[in-house]
Amino acid sequence: MEISKTIQPGEMGTKSLLNEYGDRLVCVRYRTDKKAQKRYTTVEIIVSEKSIYIAKNNLYVWINIHYNEVELRLKAKNMGAKWQPEEKCWEMEYQTAKSLNLLKRIIKKTVK
């Protein structure tokens, strides 16, 4: 079976399914089975929603430390920060950034 078309809620062909599933509807897919010569309509719906908790010790941040801030760079490096040359910033644990008072310099957050 292969997917022949995927449409989003509100697009033509989703009205009745949107009425049935409401905000839980994510998308509608049409699948075809060439051997059986049939077309199937499938829906992707949200069945549950939960808040997630991210432990701060798994949270990493990317920080901008300027080249001329030699002392700050050394402190960060000594506390485990790693230079990311592609992004041209420093990656460190959230707690490290907090202890160095760098939270206002956060560029991006990642979870590891």
Question: Would you kindly provide a brief summary of this structure?
Answer:
The chain is α+β, with helices and mostly antiparallel strands and 112 residues long.
What does this protein structure show overall?
The chain is an alpha+beta fold and 112 residues long. It folds into two domains: 2-45; 56-111, no CATH class. Helices cover 20% and strands 38% of the residues. It has three helices and seven strands. The chain has helices at 15-21, 70-78, 94-99, and strands spanning 2-7, 25-33, 38-45, 59-63, 82-84, 89-93, 106-111. It has a four-stranded antiparallel sheet. Strand 2 (25-33) and strand 3 (38-45) form a beta hairpin.
**Strand arrangement, largest sheet?**
5-6-4-7
Strands, total number: 7
Question: Structural class, from secondary structure content?
Answer: alpha+beta
Distance between the termini: 36 Å
Helix content: 10-25%
Question: Beta-strand percentage?
Answer: 35-45%
Give the helix/strand layout.
Blueprint: E1 2-7, H1 15-21, E2 25-33, E3 38-45, E4 59-63, H2 70-78, E5 82-84, E6 89-93, H3 94-99, E7 106-111
Antiparallel strand pairs: 1-2, 2-3, 4-6, 4-7, 5-6
Features:
single chain, four-stranded antiparallel sheet, 112 residues, 7 strands, three-stranded antiparallel sheet, 2 domains
